[in-house]
Amino acid sequence: MQQEKRVIALGFFDGVHLGHGALLRRVGEMADRLGAVPAAVTFDTHPENLILKVPTVPLLSSPLDRAELMRRYYGIRDVIVAHFDERMMHMPWREFVTDYLVGENGAVYLVAGHDFHFGYKGEGNPERLRELCGELGIGCDIIPKVERDHITISSTYIRTLVAQGEMERANEFLGHPHTLTDTVAHGKKLGSTLGFPTVNLRFQPGVLVPAHGVYATKVWFENGESRPAVTNIGVRPTVDDGDKVTVEGFILDFCGDLYGQTVRMEFYRRLRGERKFDSLEALKEEVMHNAEQTRAYFNAR
Ligand SMILES: Cc1cc2nc3c(=O)[nH]c(=O)nc-3n(C[C@H](O)[C@H](O)[C@H](O)COP(=O)(O)O)c2cc1C
Ligand SMILES: Nc1ncnc2c1ncn2[C@@H]1O[C@H](COP(=O)(O)OP(=O)(O)OP(=O)(O)O)[C@@H](O)[C@H]1O
Predict the structure, then answer these.
(1) Which ligand 2 atom sits nearest the alpha carbon of residue 153?
(2) pLDDT tens-digit map of 46-56
(3) For ligand 1, what atom is nearest to the CA of residue 290?
(4) For a pocket test of ligand 1, which of 192, 193, 200, 287 has the largest count of ligand atoms closer than 8 A to its C-beta?
(5) What's phi and psi for 219, nearest 5 deg?
(6) Is 238 in the pocket of ligand 1 (CB under 6 A)?
(7) 74 and 144 assigned to the same domain
(8) Which pLDDT tens digit goes with each residue over 178-193?
């Protein structure tokens, strides 16, 4: 079977921020021009997590969200998720290009960032990549760094913002709202009796949990509709004494059954920290106030 031609962006692309966007847009342009499929290679494990053997880098997005963000915002059609294992870790950089990208994945044009290092011991770099692409007769672009407020946009920086609950600033650097996609799970149903039913989502293991607290969010349903929601991330000290983190959104102006549906939640602004209330009445009153804050936030946008 004839191999499909692909224009491929190279990197990990955690969060799919505006710096990544510069690469992915270029991929789209070149794919159009060459009649090739716009694609990106990412890895199932963050290279640092495998090399250091402990997951030290909690990610902004799951592989599913990463791929979906690349599709939705930049029209990337194929997201090739490479299995980052011992073989991949020991693959010399030349082989990664000639065998993996060109041979296995039909690369006819490669796009990488100014600081992209790859292959065994990170010996591959933009200079070497450009030279090798010249030898192989395939196109190559190295994209200069993208900055905002004199800061180089990076997944590392955005992770610190999300961890501190600075969602609006994180979203400015991402170029889109921070996103969590998950299948709705069952909660204890206490929310319904209190007057605020909630959808329960989870951050996958290895994905960064934003600062605990209450957020103005938007929930997108499988049918493409969306509603504002007010969402708590945390351990619910008023009703629980464990340390299990939950993500619970009270969707405004909605009633219906969402259990089992896959929804996308977008985080916009942190409204307050999580608190232990003296009574369920006091908790409910505050949740209703936060719901109105959320409504006002989206009405003003
Ligand atoms: C917008 C919102 C804010 C919340 N804030 C807090 C809080 O500050 N402290 C707390 O202990 N629980 C908080 N919760 C969690 C509630 O205690 C929980 O949703 C309620 O007990 C229902 O739980 P259930 O869905 O498992 O039945 C909040 C929930 C929502 C939706
Ligand atoms: N601000 C940026 N401007 C231009 N290119 C970028 C920028 N940030 C990343 N890239 C490029 O995008 C690709 C993916 O990069 P990578 O996933 O390592 O992102 P990163 O934000 O630098 O991550 P980290 O902060 O974890 O190092 C690489 O080719 C990289 O050079």
Answers:
(1) 1
(2) 777 666 666 67
(3) 1
(4) 287
(5) -110, 125
(6) yes
(7) yes
(8) 999 999 987 767 777 8
Structural domain including 82 reads 6-152
Q: Are residues 134 and 244 in the same domain?
A: no
Q: Is there a domain that residue 1 lies in?
A: no
Note whether residue 295 is domain-resident: yes
Q: Where are the beta strands (DSSP E) in the chain?
A: 6-10, 37-43, 78-82, 107-113, 139-143, 147-148, 151-152, 178-183, 199-201, 213-220, 226-234, 246-251, 262-272
What ipTM did this prediction achieve?
0.89
Q: Which residue do the tokens 């200079």 mark? A: 127
Q: If you measure from the C-alpha of residue 26 to the centroid of ligand 2, how many angstroms do you get, rounded to a whole number?
A: 14
CB 235 near ligand 1, within 6 Å: no
Same domain, 212 and 134: no
Please name the residue that has the structure tokens 């319904």.
192
